[in-house]
Write the C-alpha cells for this entry.
Amino acid sequence: MSDRPILITGSTGQLGTALVTCAAAAGLQYVASDRSVLNFDKPDTVESHFFRTKPSLVLNAAAWTDVNAAERNIEAAYRANRNGPAILAALCARAMIPLIHISTDYVFDGTKGIPYVETDAVAPLGVYGASKEAGERAVLQSDARAIVIRTAWLFSAGHRNFARTMIQAARSAPQLSIVADQRGTPTAAIDLASAVLHIVDILRRRGWRDSDRGIFHVANRGDATWHEFAKQIFNVAEAHGEVRPKLLPITSADWPTPAQRPADSRLDCTKLRQHFGIDLPNWRDATRRVITEMLTAREGQVSP
Ligand SMILES: NC(=O)c1ccc[n+]([C@@H]2O[C@H](COP(=O)([O-])OP(=O)(O)OC[C@H]3O[C@@H](n4cnc5c(N)ncnc54)[C@H](OP(=O)(O)O)[C@@H]3O)[C@@H](O)[C@H]2O)c1
C-alpha cells in the first residue's frame, strides 16, 4: 500500500469518528468521507468519490443503523447496508485494494447459548440484521480483498447511544427500567477503531494474504446484559457527580420494540487473536474510559 489515502466512509458516525481519530493519531493519510460526498442513496457518488480519492484501502463504517426504523424503511436500509457496500466492493476488487467492511452481531438470532464464531449459521431476526447479512454476502461474493468485521453494542463519548441515553435519562428519572434478558458484548467505538487500524497496519507492513479474507468477530472482552451495562455506566458516572438511579431489571417482553433483538449475541473473538494477534480490552474497562471522557468533555454537557 502506497502513499494513497485510506478512504473512511460514514465519517460522521460513532465508528467513523473514532476511525478518523485513530488514523490521525497514527499519522496515516486518510480521506474522511461523510454522506455529502459518498451517499449510498446516490450510487454514482460512491464511484465518483472513489475515483477522486484513489484510495489504497477502504474502511466502510457507513450504514443504516436504526434497528427499529429499519422495519419500516426496508429499501433505504438495504440501499445503505447491501447495495452501497456491494458497489464499494466492486470498486475495491477492480483496484485490487482491501475493503474492511463493518457488520453486526444482529445477523444472529441469539439462540446458540454460547458465543458465536464466524462460521455459525446466520439467522437475522429483523430488517436491519437481514440487510447487514445481505451486505456481508455481497462483499464476500465480490472479488475484493475483503475483511468483514462483525461487532456489537457500540458506544462512544460523543454520539447518541445506550450509554449517553442512560446518563441523560437518569438526570430526570429516579428509576430506569432496563432489559436484563438480552446478553451481548458492549464495545467502545474507539477500541474497535484501534483494532481496525491495527489490522490496517499489519496489511501495510506485510501485504495482503489470501487467508486475511473473510469474517472476523471484533468486540470488547467479556459480556453483559443491558442491565449490567447500565450498572457499570452508573458506577463510573456516580464518581463524576451524576445521580445513580434505581435500575429495575425487566424482560424484553416488558419493553416491546418494532424490531426483535437476539437474546444472546455474544461474539467469540478467538479468530481475531489467532490470525492478527489482536485482543480488545474488557468492556468494563472500556466503559470506564468512555464514560469518563463523556463526563469530563467540554463543560461535562451530555446532550441527546
Ligand atoms: N451502533 C451499534 O451498536 C452497532 C452494533 C453492531 C454493529 N454496528 C455496525 O458498525 C458500523 C458503524 O456503526 P455506528 O454506530 O458508527 O453508526 P452511526 O453512528 O449510525 O453512523 C453511521 C454512519 O453512516 C452514515 N450513513 C448512513 N446512511 C448512509 C447512506 N445512505 N450513505 C452514506 N452514508 C450513510 C451516517 O451518516 P449521517 O451522519 O449523515 O447519518 C453515519 O456517518 C455499522 O456498520 C453498523 O452496522 C453498529
Remarks:
- Residues 10, 12-16, 34-35, 38-41, 61-65, 80, 84, 102, 104-105, 132, 151-154, 159 surround NAP (CB under 6 Å).
- The domain at 6-160+187-221+261-282 is CATH 3.40.50.720 (Rossmann fold).
- Residues 67 and 126 are 8 Å apart (CA to CA).
